[in-house]
Amino acid sequence: MRKSFLHIVARWTSLYTWWVAGGIIVVTLFLGYNASTLQMRTGYDNLLPGDNPLTAEYNRILDEFENESSIILLARGKEDSLKAFADAVKPLLEEFEDWVSMVHTQIPADFYRKNALKLIPPDQLENVGSMFEDPNLVPFLQNLNNAFEREYQGNDGALESNRDELDAVRFLDGLESFIQLQQSVMEGVSSSQIGREAVDAITFGETYMLAPDKEMILIMVEPAFNMLVDPDFLQESINGIEKVVQETGEKFYVSTGLTGSLVLGRDEYEAFMSDSWNVTLLALAGIFILFVISFRMWVSPVLAIVTVILGVTWGIGFSSFMVEYLNMMTAMMSVILIGLGIDFSVHLISGYTEKRNQGLDVFVSMEETLQRFGPGIMTGGVTTGLAFLTMIVSRTEGMREMGLMAGTGIIFTMLATIIILPTLLVIRERILRNYKKKFPVRDVSYPILGSIATNIAKIRRVWLGLFLLLSVFLGYRSTQMKMDYNYLNLEPIGLESIKLQEELIEEFDLSSDFIMLTAESLPEARRLTENARELKSTGWVESITDYLPNEEGLEKQYQFLRELRRTIRNREVRRQMSTHDMKLYRKEMERLEANIIELQDMAFLGGQDKVYEKAIRIVGEAEDSIPRGNLTTYINQIDTGLTRTELTYFQQQFAGKLKSAILEMTNAEPLTLENLPGDIKNRFTGKSGDLFIINVYPAKNVWEDARFLYSFTEEARELSSRATGLPPIFVELMDIMSKDGKNATYFALLAVFFVLLIDFRSVKYALAGMVPLIFGAVWMMGVMELGGLMFNMMNIMAVPLIIGIGIDDGVHILHRWKIEKNLDTVYRSTGKAILLTSLTTMLGFGSLWFATYRGLGSMGLALFIGVGTCFFATLFMLPPLLGMNKKSS
Amino acid sequence: MDEHYQKVTIYLPVLLTLILGTALYSQNMSASAILDSMTAAMQPVSAKGKMEQEIISSKNVKRVFTFEYFSENNGENVLIRYLEPRKVKNNAFLIKNNGEDIWVYFPRTRRVRKLASHAKNQKAQGSDFSYEDFSGSENWKNDYKVNLGDSGERETYLLNFIRKEKADVSYNKQNIFVDKRTYYPHRIFYFEDDEHVKTLEFKEITEIQHYPTAQRMVMKNHAEGSQTEMRILNMEYNVEFEENFFSERNLKK
Predict the structure, then answer these.
(1) pLDDT tens by residue, B95-128
(2) I want to staple A870 with a disulfide (CB 3.0 to 4.6 A). Which of A341, A617, A776, B130 is the partner?
(3) At B101, which CATH number?
């Protein structure tokens, strides 16, 4: 049947050339159109099985909350410029309703002004609340120092968690502003806002989300879309937001940048789009040059390139019936198919040229070529295709689609080559009027390969021993291969979004790669939030319950608030500062300085660098020869005799505002979900109203340490089986993929063996065909390990892929061997073809190395090595076996 | 014959109980004897020296401190005074009663502060050691039940410590691998809620005044991915201290 098919192809392409050409054009147009409809979708969640609980939960979050994460806008500059920039950019971005749903530049100050005291945990209520028992400046400072000493002094563990550290920084930040305001009054500044600003500073601190050094601001842009949108829309919207941000930033002399998963998704999409063209063109150019050098002709390489382009179009066009999107693994399908598909053309052109150089005419040469090389090409194509198709047993969506597309793609490319290339070759002969012409006999084989194979077979025991030793060594090395869990190593180098992610962690202890937990009730949300904060791997946790007091402590809280209200209402705001008050004032300011110094020392010993650095701005540090902290400088400026007027002014402004602020904060209105401000409520509550999200940020960069990534994910999963987000999705993906990779490899080996068994109808030949494949795959992993490479999510696929790819060389050699039974002839002729096919495939995969998306590069490199080792295994391991076979027969 | 058989069946369980009981008793004896030998070997009555502490945080940030170390009563009372870096020079910690009472002296403010009692279970100065880890050998005897396990190694005994009920210590279990020749520990595994959270390794063991002494002690924190190494720069044992040397007042000197 195979022979009849090949005979028909030879006959039709030779006799009905133009009809066949017309048919090819029609099929190409149809499948080409379908191929062009395939869209690209980035993101790791697309690679997991659709029914995976993590993906299901992720999709539920997308559905309920409309977006899974905010776009993070970071700007660097001077404090005043940053605040002005934030105020300016917010309305500008919110004008684009299709892109932006809301911009958060400041914490909700009005909400805190009304409810700050209600949000203090019951166990801290007494200590923190006692600060506000007297609004007058001196008693306030006394109470502040008492509370400070209770909280931070005598408590080495007060800064132990990340949250404690950030709270301490925030508290110090407020104190810094509080001192600055007093200093400005001392310098003669008077403003009706000073009292309120001072009260805000000590009640909830800075309202803008500034880094501790105040040189960077964080703005959360809540998008009106999520990762599931059309990738072109994603690109357009992020680019649009970026443009507005950049233009506004320039006006305020601040440098700006965007990060977050959506921005990274845009960057990946752009990288894939440019890579897919650049790498494909590079692969084609490399293959063309190799063809020209090895065949010493121009036209045939052009025909081969045209064939492979049409073949790949057929392959991808057919695949479009089976998959909806290209994912990160299948994005470079065209390069893979070009690298593999060109092999079929190499064999056909090599055979056809050989036959024409033997003096045969076009029809006979074509018939001979197809009959002699066609079975090998078909077996090779089908075996490779089936080996790829075994990947559909994978649980990962990405790997399954990869198997499906590569499997059907390669079979279609093979069929296309068998039909298209002979047609093009005949058309060329017709145009050049060579149809009946016979060429002089010329030897175009590679005798060196023949003599290598013959010499190896002669002293096969020595060579076999040596190669087995090498295989044991490389096999051992392959077992030492490690996994790289850092997905950032797959991303393009120098991406601004990645650089900003690192700055985000460094400056704000936040990561855009966090875990999301969902709760179906407020008590569940509170339990999950509290437990998440106890986890060792957790840095920061944000939840709706941060804005809602715990009902269990409500009675105690309202009693405290009532008492505080009563106390503060009876307090009289003093109009004057006495000499005694001035002395006490100075004493309390010195006490405050000492408290901050001690906190700073403890922070230094404990490695809480942010607290230490923040404290430097207030009290300097031990090595200072000239005091540089604003509090130290201020205390030195206080002259109890001369500054009384200014301080009295500050006392009047501050105490009055503090009293009214406390009265406002001690209101009896219950704080419930219903009366929460919309922007807080919507951020944490799903559309249905009864689903709450809790964001759990890691204590450090999850991608720097695989063990930490695993413990962070594991702890969150123990907390809730519904924990999702990029870290757990990535861990799940890696786990499933390494299992899938193994399973797919075993299935591919089985499939390849059965195809060989059917093809050769001999166990001996089928086993011989497996030899270069198995040794080639082991050598590949050994060489990778020796080269310092690690398995990652992309290149792990190279193992099952190489089973499908590496089988070709052996199949072609064995097919020719069955006919010739002469190692020299087989290797000098078919050896040349497999050398060329290996080189072209290596060029195809090697060109992936130049992809900006490094994950593709790593896969390309692994396959480059694999194709090379499979060729060497065919050259070195098969001749001794075939030599034995000849002797025994 | 039958009578004899009956006697054997009666006596056999009694005999087995006796044999097993003696074996178990002797094993307990042996564990506590090893513990006594170990505490005698690793904890001289008093010590004075200079040490270096290198902390590598989970974020891979390295910090090095040098401090003077003084201890008495087999480690019951410890005084640590920082020498370097300059930022914390002369900051001092006094840890008394096996970590129950801790005072800190801040030279920049010239104030002494007492740390809260629960500080015992917390990290000591940001290192992977807790104040409890510094506490003396009495804790092992008072707060834990000890038995002998199989270390799986020819050269070490394995002492298993199980927290006694109501004992105020953070580890529910400790495993100590003790050298059979010197009775000096090779390593200690610390468990919290049965999870292996930290490992302390004793390295470069040499003799100082006939006491085996680890020149390097490395505490690895498995939960946080950080580690702290203590290096002995010099050490002297069985030192006579002035009265009130381990007092809050002396912290300021």
Answers:
(1) 888 777 888 899 888 888 887 655 555 666 667 8
(2) A776
(3) 2.50.20.10
Helix (H) or strand (E) holding B218: strand B211-221
The structure's pTM equals 0.72
User: CB-CB: which of A160, A623, A708 is closest to B87?
Assistant: A623
- Residue B27 domain-assigned (yes or no): no
Task: Determine contact, residues B211/B232, Cβ cutoff 8 Å.
Answer: no
Alpha-carbon span A172 to A170, nearest angstrom: 5
For residue A328, give the amino acid letter. Answer: M
Bridge partners for B77 per DSSP: B72
Residues 6+ apart with CB under 8 A from A645: none
Of B58, B65, B124, the CB nearest to A700: B58
The interface predicted TM-score (ipTM) is 0.76
Which domains, and CATH codes, for chain A? 2-37+266-487+730-888 (1.20.1640.10), 70-106+217-259 (3.30.70), 109-207+550-670 (no CATH)
Which residue out of A509, A595, A601, A711 would a mutagenesis test of the B interface target, given it has the greatest number of B Cβ atoms within 10 Å? A601
Asked, for residue B59, whether it belongs to a domain, the answer is yes
**Mean per-residue pLDDT over chain A, rounded:** 84
Q: B-contacting residues of A 557-616, CB under 8 Å?
A: 594, 597-598, 601-602, 604-609
List B residues 86-145 in contact with A (Cβ-Cβ < 8 A): 86-89, 91, 102, 104, 106, 108-109, 111, 113-116, 118-119, 122-126
Q: How many domains in chain B?
A: 1
Evaluate whether A845 touches A777 at the Cβ level (below 8 Å). no
Domain interval for residue B185: 39-251
A76-80, A123-127, B215-219: least confident range: A123-127
Whether residue B190 lies inside any domain: the answer is yes
Flag if B58 and A699 touch (Cβ within 8 Å): yes
Q: What is the pLDDT of residues A828-872, one digit of tens each?
A: 888 888 888 888 888 888 888 888 888 888 989 999 999 999 999
Evaluate whether residue B57 is within a structural domain: yes
